[in-house]
Design goal:
alpha+beta
Amino acid sequence: MPTILKVDGWRFFFFSDEHSPQHIHIEKADAYARIELITLKVTDSYNLNSKELKKLLSLVKLNNEELQKAWNEYFKQKNID
């Protein structure tokens, strides 16, 4: 599970056996979200209030280039888009 980014206790990561579309998992304690990198669509979340989710979306948007680059580099050998 490569961790790509840590911000304010939030861990941004993906699993080593991921699937398309490109997305990032985010967790902190018992809170969790999964957000697609291209569309910024939240595809899963729990134990998050709207303020926290808005912050996570903002962080993904702000760091999107770095997150996509990490995804592409890690999964290049697996041909996952």
